[in-house]
Write a structure and sequence with these properties.
Helices cover 44% and strands 13% of the residues. It has 352 residues and is an alpha/beta fold.
Length: 352
């Protein structure tokens, strides 16, 4: 694929038409409404909420903390909701609930590599159970209105065995045959977790096999250059940025600029970082309340700090933040004077 053809790309997920092939992945414990809105404001064409257990969604009740996990903002559409579970019969009520809450796409997680998830026969475990996986796809597709796309998130297999490869292709082909609108494929196996490189050659093989069906690539997307390189090298229809978007919403605008043939955008200035931090904090407080926001935002802040020229000092300051006054004090101390940001690429921790 040439750079010109990549630059011309949009991305279609069934009835959902996106103006760029770069999206924010579902991130457990991270991609709540606040993170998604920030990502959309900085150029993500589409975003997915954090993975939710089907049984939780169907019985969430009225608790504010629980409802916050389902919350959708008016200005973040289109948005996808991701479900995970083990029993095919638990998925339909959860899928219908997400549609009722305003989600535009229902995504099914067959990729989570976390040990306790696998032990409960969820997530990536289902790559070893193609019959059950495809029964889940059938039930979700039947449960939601025809105009609501259903999508999958997969890894390239449970492990590197021949049986695992057979299962992958069975699920991929079976899901498309059952009306799935797009499949996101991460280039590592479940067994790998996040160790070793993502296999982009495998992503290219998946796209060749899928033909005109929508395939989105995932894995090792920590920079705009990597996003464009994956599109160039593999031919996938879009890229799904996961860990590379935490505390780095600028990756989406940077990717769009490269796809348009423009020079690489500079890293955000200190004042531009400050505005993103203020917005993210405000959105988190609106969603969770000040106390919970103080806890949840620390994990974002230590990632945002990596773009600041005094990143170690800023990181350490954010670690102790608990309430709004603490947050604003860090901004007043480290973000009052403008200046250029730093490129954090040299110290990316790909095992996080």
């Amino acid at each position: 694929m040439t750079r010109a053809s990549v630059a011309a790309q949009t991305l279609s997920i069934g009835t959902v038409r996106l103006d760029a092939p770069v999206v924010q992945a579902a991130l457990a414990g991270y991609s709540d409404r606040a993170m998604r809105v920030i990502a959309r404001r900085h150029g993500a064409a589409y975003s997915l909420g954090e993975v939710l257990l089907d049984q939780f969604v169907a019985t969430v009740g009225t608790n504010r903390r629980n409802l916050a996990r389902l919350a959708v903002a008016a200005d973040e559409h289109p948005v996808g909701g991701q479900l995970m579970g083990a029993n095919p019969d638990d998925f339909p009520p959860a899928a219908r609930r997400l549609v009722a809450e305003g989600y535009d796409v229902i995504d099914i997680n067959f990729g989570c590599p976390v040990k306790k998830v696998l032990g409960r026969c969820r997530g990536g475990f289902l790559l070893s159970q193609p019959q059950t996986a495809l029964e889940i796809v059938d039930k979700v597709r039947a449960a939601v209105p025809p105009h609501v796309p259903v999508t999958l998130k997969m890894r390239r297999g449970l492990d590197d065995s021949a049986q695992s490869a057979d299962n992958f292709w069975t699920i991929l082909d079976g899901a498309f045959a059952r009306g799935v609108a797009a499949i996101t494929v991460h280039g590592r196996t479940v067994q790998q977790k996040y160790v070793g490189p993502s296999n982009w050659d495998f992503l290219a093989a998946v796209k060749r096999h899928a033909g005109d069906r929508t395939v989105i690539g995932s894995g090792d997307l920590f920079s705009a250059e990597a996003c464009v390189a994956m599109l160039d090298r593999t031919g996938v229809d879009g890229v799904s940025v996961a860990r590379g978007a935490i505390g780095n919403p600028w990756i989406f605008a940077q990717t769009r600029a490269l796809l348009a043939g423009s020079p690489a955008l500079p890293w955000p200035t200190i004042h531009e970082q400050r505005e993103a931090l203020r917005d993210h904090w405000r959105l988190a407080v609106e969603l969770h309340g000040e106390q919970l926001a103080g806890r949840s935002m620390r994990k974002f802040a230590i990632k945002y700090a990596r773009v600041h020229p005094e990143f170690l000092a800023v990181r350490d300051a954010f670690i102790s933040v608990k309430v709004n006054a603490d947050w604003q004090a860090v901004l007043d101390r480290f973000y009052a004077v403008d200046g250029p940001g730093r490129d954090p690429a040299a110290d990316v921790d790909e095992t996080m």
